[in-house]
Amino acid sequence: MLRAVIVEDNVLTAELIAGIIETCCPQVEIKGVAHDIDNAVKTIQENSPNLVLFDINLRGGTSFDILKKLDHINFKIIFITSFDTYAIKAIKLSALDYLLKPVNAVELTNAIQK
Questions:
Q1: Inter-residue contact 96 to 76 (CB < 8 Å)
Q2: Is it the case that residue 59 has pLDDT exceeding 90?
Q3: What is the largest CA-CA distance in the chain?
């Protein structure tokens, strides 16, 4: 069972992502959802996920700011964003995938299965 955390500042989008995962990826357990940088750091540290799904632009910063605050990045990353400008940075972090919004259920499912 994969343990996942969703980091998304838009509540409706976070619910959409969670719904897709619950429907299409029964091997994934959503351990937490965070809507801002500080809660994301706390949620990741408390739940030790195998997978984190990051929106990039968040209130007060970016998901890259979250990654800088963590001692270890011992989880896989999927970025889900409206912006294609961060793709190179995501590749350098060895992200599993870089998905553009609106979220596509098939693309998200395929990315998780990687």
A1: yes
A2: no
A3: 33
Residue percentage of the chain with pLDDT more than 90: 94
Quickly count helices (H) and strands (E) in the chain: 5, 7
- For residue 31, what are the CA distances in angstroms to 1, 50, 87? 11, 10, 26
16's CB contacts (< 8 A; 6+ apart) are 103
What angle is formed at CA 110 by the lines to CA 12 and CA 46, rounded to 5 degrees? 55
pLDDT for residue 60 is more than 90: no
Residues 6+ apart with CB under 8 A from 42: 34
DSSP letter, residue 12: H
**pLDDT tens-digit map of 90-99:** 999 899 999 9
Alpha-carbon dihedral of residues 61, 28, 12, 97, nearest 10 degrees? 50
* Whole-number Å distance between alpha carbons of 63 and 55: 7
What 3-state DSSP class applies to 73?
coil
